[in-house]
Specification:
- By secondary structure, the protein is of the alpha+beta class.
- It folds into three domains: 1-59, no CATH class; 64-166, Tyrosine recombinase, N-terminal domain (DNA polymerase, domain 1, Orthogonal Bundle); 178-374, Intergrase catalytic core (hpI Integrase, Chain A).
- 46% of the residues lie in helices and 14% in strands.
- The chain is built from 16 helices and eight strands.
- The strands form three sheets. The protein has a three-stranded antiparallel sheet with strand order 1-2-3, with helices on one face.
- Strand 6 and strand 7 (248-256) form a beta hairpin.
Length: 375
């Protein structure tokens, strides 16, 4: 017997009900939606919530522990909110699950938590966690505690004046040293191996534009301007967990805006690739699809890339190394670092030194320096 539902979200069917949970000062009812796999499950969730309200469990949220209140913040306020991207929610949930849920500060009452406790927790984490990991945790906690502050549960944000262990500059420099790029010999070997395959355009376009994998997979023909020999980057494809509830989730490929405003950019296409793109018969929809006509998944691209490198007897490098190769070759060809930074959508001054706009003509001439390896 098929289950009875009345609402579909992200391809999943639910039963949705709406309950009045209170009234504003002017008498306007305050309503809240509840979801379940069936009407009875939705009703059960609604009744529990209303009972908690009556018993003061929700109104007196300051009595919750850090772990309890952060879970409420995530799944009662942020879950399915248009205010944040699904990928951001996934990151927040991961931080909660890995760093807060069972941490030394998890059981502390929200009103009793102070900066000393958090500083000590960070100090302990620094023994086996990187500066970057602790910094990410601190950023998420700042957002959470700002919410707590605005709602009156705490009198100040305890993450405001903390010292994070580690040297950020050294960490970034180490990452730069670890960046792997493809040699000209390896590029030619790969080009010969994939010639005539579906992977050829994917590889050459990435090598010629330096796009991130998500940006590449989100490309559609509306954003490719062949006459102007340029493409517009303003979205990215990403596989994320969509949370149906606290303990239930599924994976979806979503199209979202890039992480930062600097990632939104116009990138010239090397002239040697224009003919290849012009030869494509179907110039509608997304550029890269799988055999079923669905958007190509990043994990499948990475898997195929690994197989190609193995067949070509090339030491493993991530698909992202193609993007690094793009930037490295431009710098080797004498293109100034500011132009390279703009083309790649970089924001970290410590990596690119500075970020500035350059004239389209300068960028076009710079990218055409790649023609020698793309032909």
């Amino acid at each position: 017997m098929a289950k009875k539902t009345n609402y579909t979200k992200n391809g999943i069917e639910y039963y949705r009900i709406t309950k009045t949970i209170g009234h504003k000062e002017d008498g306007t009812p305050v309503k809240k939606e509840f979801y379940g796999n069936s009407k009875s499950e939705a009703e059960e969730k609604a009744n529990k919530y209303i009972n908690d309200l009556k018993n003061g469990l929700i109104q007196n949220a300051e009595n919750y522990t850090v772990s309890q209140l952060m879970k409420i913040w995530l799944f009662d306020f942020l879950h399915n909110s248009v205010a944040i991207k699904p990928s951001t929610f996934q990151r927040y949930e991961g931080i909660y699950r890995n760093y807060i849920k069972s941490s030394t500060i998890a059981g502390t009452k929200i009103t009793k938590l102070n900066s000393v406790q958090i500083q000590n927790y960070y100090n302990d984490l620094s023994k086996d966690k990187s500066y970057s990991q602790i910094s990410t945790l601190n950023k998420v906690l700042k957002v959470f505690f700002n919410w707590c502050y605005k709602d009156g549960y705490i009198i100040k944000n305890p993450c405001s004046n903390l010292t994070l262990k580690g040297n950020k500059t050294d960490i970034i420099n180490n990452k730069i040293k670890e960046v792997k790029i493809l040699s000209i010999k390896e590029i030619n070997t790969i080009k010969n191996y994939i010639k005539g395959t579906d992977f050829e355009l994917l590889f050459l376009l990435d090598l010629g534009t330096g796009l991130r994998l998500g940006e590449l997979l989100a490309l559609d023909w509306e954003h490719i301007h062949l006459k102007e020999k340029e493409l517009k980057v303003d979205k990215s494809a990403k596989e994320v967990y969509i949370y149906d509830s606290f303990d239930k989730k599924h994976i979806e490929t979503i199209i979202q805006t890039p992480k930062t405003r600097h990632s939104i950019r116009t990138v010239p296409i090397p002239s040697s690739l224009i003919d290849t793109l012009n030869q494509k018969e179907n110039k509608e929809g997304y550029l890269f699809l799988d055999k079923q006509g669905n958007l190509l998944k990043g994990k499948n691209v990475s898997s195929e890339w690994t197989k190609i490198l193995k067949k070509c007897n090339i030491p493993h490098k991530k698909f992202h190394s193609i993007r690094h190769t793009f930037g490295s070759i431009l710098l080797q060809k004498g293109v100034d670092i500011e132009t390279v930074a703009e083309l790649m959508g970089h924001t970290a001054i410590s990596i690119t030194q500075m970020y500035m706009h350059s004239e389209t003509k300068i960028k076009s001439n710079s990218v055409n320096k790649l023609n020698s390896i793309l032909n």
